[in-house]
Design goal:
CATH class of the domain at 2-25 and 107-253: Alpha Beta
Mean pLDDT: 93
CATH architecture of the domain at 2-25 and 107-253: 3-Layer(aba) Sandwich
Low-confidence stretches: none
Number of strands: 19
Helix content: 10-25%
CATH topology of the domain at 2-25 and 107-253: Rossmann fold
Radius of gyration: 21 Å
Order of helices and strands: EEEEEEEEEHEEHHEEHEHEEHEEEHHHH
Largest sheet: 6 strands, mixed
Strand order of the largest sheet: 1-13-12-11-14-10
């Protein structure tokens, strides 16, 4: 069954550095990979390996202290080089030297049994790639979702083309196998959201939803809100189509697929392209000889709205699909600064010439303005296609008013849903950080 939804609210940000035409797929030679527990909210990490241990692809590296069935597994076979810790011995990341390609083999003989399917996902580490709403966390090992939502496209600036990634690295059989496995874990529906021109058409066991409209149409939380919103007491699971393919690959072969196809994009990239590598790969190995300069560059693992700021010596962060490089902007000296009327200034405000120009821009990482009190202007509502009052919800979160947070829809949201609100915000408020802290606070108080 197929349905269609058109979203009118949102904003497409046109910036320089897109992949114009996919070139032959190059394989990156990766020397080290890293697993960052902070990429998996809801987990309290405990390392189950030591420096010098030899691991296979699929070997458990980290478990959740509070739910040991949930594991983070190695995407590479090799030797544990370093366990980086922060304050109070918090695990920041675990670095592994890549030496070979030996796999852990998982039992798939009882794949149609719900308990066996659940255990398979948990042991392989793919369970940690799922997200639960409310709270936008890794689901508890005993969680049963009302429905499961899968996004098959990414509408963020310079985002990778999921159809291209599937064509080059996966197949329809893996999608079908992934849907069948997830179907055994819910009594509800499985929804796959696509664009009309997607190669994903009819998948047995899933409802296809064609979604048109600007970003954030590709955000799975926006899709949930417009397909079947969450009520208090319910939970749903979300994931992207690449994770679904990996689940299908596991079901068909008995081992995980650690490879990933990464979009290398941005105005500071010489040759925007797709590269095949390993999850958690070292950034230097991915960008070798492809940066225009090494000075005053903002490297981002992910897109410019929700990604993590990184350095050339860091590693790719989950969901392992995108790197963006833009100017830092700290050496920029322009007339009138943030108030410059230059046609090269990108803005959503009609006060700037760039608002009216149909061109691609070269933004930098500057905030362009000072932080100030929240202005109740209604500007968030123009870019957030959800039936919530964003400004009032944020104020409830800041004041830690649980009743108001619940009434205003906090169970439906995740930080990424507010990324565009943060972008257009004249107050320069760190909205995504506020939402993340609010979700963590609510979960701590309620559970």
């Amino acid at each position: 069954m197929t349905r269609s939804i058109t979203l009118k609210k949102g904003l497409d940000i046109n910036i320089i550095g897109e992949i114009l035409s996919p070139s032959p797929l190059n394989n990156a030679l990766i020397k080290t990979i890293a697993i960052v527990p902070d990429d998996f909210p809801g987990i309290t990490p405990k390392a189950v390996v030591s420096i010098g241990d030899k691991v296979k692809i699929g070997t458990a590296i980290i478990i959740d202290k509070n739910d040991p069935n949930i594991k983070l597994t190695s995407p590479s076979a090799g030797i544990v080089r370093e366990i980086v810790r922060g304050e109070r011995r918090k695990i920041i990341k675990i670095i592994i030297d890549c030496t070979d390609d030996e796999f852990e083999q998982f039992d798939t003989s009882l794949i149609n049994n719900p308990d066996a399917s659940r255990l398979l996902l948990q042991q392989s580490g793919l369970w940690a790639h799922l997200r639960q709403r409310p709270y936008d966390i890794v689901p508890a090992s005993t969680s049963f979702p009302r429905d499961i939502f899968i996004t098959a496209f990414d509408s963020a600036p310079l985002a990778p083309n999921y159809d291209f990634i599937i064509e080059r690295n996966y197949n329809t059989n893996e999608i079908i196998a992934g849907v069948q496995l997830l179907k055994s874990l819910t009594s509800g529906n499985i929804y796959i959201s696509t664009r009309k021109d997607s190669s994903i058409k009819n998948i047995e066991g899933a409802t296809i939803i064609n979604i048109e409209g600007p970003h954030p149409a590709g955000n799975v939380g926006i899709q949930v809100a417009n397909i079947s919103p969450i009520n208090k007491g319910e939970n749903v699971w979300t994931l992207n189509i690449i994770t679904l393919c990996k689940i299908g690959h596991l079901a068909l072969t008995g081992h995980i697929d650690p490879t990933t196809i990464i979009a290398i994009t941005g105005s500071e990239i010489k040759n925007p392209q797709y590269i095949k590598a390993i999850e958690g790969a070292n950034i230097e190995d991915l960008l070798i000889d492809n940066l225009k300069t090494l000075n005053n560059i903002r490297l981002i693992s992910g897109n410019i709205l929700t990604g993590h700021a990184i350095t050339i010596n860091d590693h790719l962060r989950f969901p392992y699909l995108h790197i963006t490089a833009i100017p830092e902007g700290d050496k920029t000296d322009e007339f009138m600064g943030w108030a410059s009327l230059s046609p090269n200034k990108m803005s959503v405000s009609r006060s700037f010439i760039g608002h009216f120009l149909k061109k691609k821009f070269r933004p930098d990482a500057r905030i362009l303005g000072s932080r100030r009190a929240m202005i109740m202007s209604g500007e968030y509502d123009k870019v957030l296609p959800m039936d919530i009052y964003a400004e009032y919800l944020l104020k409830a979160i800041i004041s830690r008013n649980i009743d108001q947070m619940e009434a205003l829809g906090i169970y439906e949201v995740a930080p990424e849903d507010f990324a565009l609100c943060e972008y257009v915000d004249t107050s320069k408020i760190e909205i995504q950080k506020i939402v993340r802290e609010g979700l963590d606070y609510l979960r701590h108080e309620i559970e």
